[in-house]
Design a protein that fits this description.
The protein is built from two helices and no strands. It is mostly helical and 50 residues long. It has one domain.
């Protein structure tokens, strides 16, 4: 039987980075740059997860 392992390091890093920007954005909801960054990081994280 062939056993496959998956390297999820990239996904873990992307989730961590997304969390970082979400914490910063939560403190300053009026910052459009942080909002855009959070959206971009979410898209990137989602694409890795697929």
């Amino acid at each position: 039987m062939i056993e496959e392992t998956f390297n999820v390091t990239s996904l873990e890093n992307a989730v961590k980075r997304l969390g970082e920007v979400l914490v910063r954005y939560k403190n300053v909801l009026s910052d459009d740059v942080l909002r855009d960054s959070a959206i971009q990081r979410f898209k990137f994280t989602y694409s890795i997860a697929l």
